[in-house]
TrEMBL record:
<protein>
    <submittedName>
        <fullName>ABC transporter related protein</fullName>
    </submittedName>
</protein>
<keyword id="KW-0067">ATP-binding</keyword>
<dbReference type="InterPro" id="IPR003593">
    <property type="entry name" value="AAA+_ATPase"/>
</dbReference>
<dbReference type="Pfam" id="PF00005">
    <property type="entry name" value="ABC_tran"/>
</dbReference>
<dbReference type="InterPro" id="IPR032823">
    <property type="entry name" value="BCA_ABC_TP_C"/>
</dbReference>
<keyword id="KW-0813">Transport</keyword>
<keyword id="KW-0547">Nucleotide-binding</keyword>
<dbReference type="InterPro" id="IPR027417">
    <property type="entry name" value="P-loop_NTPase"/>
</dbReference>
<dbReference type="InterPro" id="IPR051120">
    <property type="entry name" value="ABC_AA/LPS_Transport"/>
</dbReference>
<dbReference type="GO" id="GO:0016887">
    <property type="term" value="F:ATP hydrolysis activity"/>
</dbReference>
<feature type="domain" description="ABC transporter">
    <location>
        <begin position="9"/>
        <end position="256"/>
    </location>
</feature>
<dbReference type="InterPro" id="IPR003439">
    <property type="entry name" value="ABC_transporter-like_ATP-bd"/>
</dbReference>
<dbReference type="GO" id="GO:0005524">
    <property type="term" value="F:ATP binding"/>
</dbReference>
<dbReference type="GO" id="GO:0005886">
    <property type="term" value="C:plasma membrane"/>
</dbReference>
<dbReference type="Pfam" id="PF12399">
    <property type="entry name" value="BCA_ABC_TP_C"/>
</dbReference>
Length: 263
């Protein structure tokens, strides 16, 4: 295993307690640059909490998170975004009554201090900067397969295209690490395949991807490595084949009444 110095993301004994409940308990792992790294586990295992800890949404109870070698354990959510970590949410933050392009421009605003859309629009270079932001938005929409949909209202997009829009919003500011929280929610099989292809393409473009996903077929085929959480603890980590055959993983899933197929 490579040393944590090479890791883009390093978790060291990461722990979060909510009152008497330990949602994430002493979790340590490294994510290497260019990996698609998935986090799986039964409902309530601590996956979303772990995302919140990495992105600064939730403070750590103890432990340490480092991004590109810098300790970000106590860094604010906005600063972390500015450093190059971006995420989508289970329930996306799309403004449904706005156009796709406008939503991506909001993504630029949310993630980047340097290109705060509101500030730019009030400045003297208003029109030029608006054109520049719009051009970035259009380019990002093309990257996610929504070229030409910039002026379409977000509400008019299919569920699959709304998922793509959520990804566009998250990558607008050019992050290095992208966290995706159940991007296949509400998608049918062929749409899942298309989304997997998009994620693989983004990785080829240099992004590192941290993925929470319940669809096992997708997780097993797209991931370089998988970490399995159960009751807040890391019970298995490794390439898909290794994790799939780990007795502790089978036990955790069967114990939670899971079927080994998609659900
Ligand atoms: N803000 C909070 N306050 C109290 N308890 C919380 C909070 N957030 C999460 N928890 C608890 O922490 C545990 C882990 O929850 P978490 O949402 O991280 O799990 P998960 O693996 O993402 O689950 P799911 O697959 O259902 O989304 C759960 O028992 C949950 O109820």
């Amino acid at each position: 295993m490579a040393s944590s110095n090479d890791a883009i993301l390093h978790l060291d004994q990461v722990t979060r307690r909510f009152g008497g409940l330990t949602a994430v308990n002493g979790v340590s792992f490294d994510v290497m640059p260019g990996e698609i790294f998935s986090i799986i586990g039964p409902n309530g295992a601590g996956k979303s909490t772990l995302f919140n800890l990495v992105t600064g949404v939730t403070p750590l109870s103890s432990g340490r998170v480092a991004f590109e070698g810098s300790d970000v354990s106590t860094v604010s959510v906005h600063k972390i975004a500015g450093m190059g970590i971006s995420r989508t949410f289970q329930s996306t933050q799309i403004l449904m009554d706005q156009s796709a392009a406008y939503n991506v421009m909001l993504g630029l605003q949310r993630e980047s201090r340097a290109t705060l859309v509101g500030a730019i629009f009030r400045s003297r270079g208003f029109r030029r900067e608006e054109r520049r932001c719009r051009a970035i938005a259009e380019e990002v929409l093309v990257r996610v397969g929504l070229g030409g949909a910039g002026e379409t209202g977000a509400a008019e997009l299919s569920t699959a295209n709304q998922q793509r829009l959520a990804i566009a919003m998250a990558i607008a500011s050019g992050p290095k690490l992208l966290l995706l929280d159940e991007p296949t929610g509400g998608l049918i099989e062929t749409e899942v395949d298309d989304l997997m292809h998009l994620i693989a393409t983004l990785r080829e473009g240099g992004l590192t991807v941290l993925l929470i996903e319940h669809k096992m077929r997708m997780v097993m085929s797209i991931s370089d490595r998988i970490a399995v959480l159960d009751h807040g603890e890391l019970i298995s980590i490794g390439p898909p084949k290794q994790v799939r055959n780990d007795p502790r993983v089978l036990e955790a899933y069967l114990g939670a009444n899971y079927v080994a197929e998609d659900h």
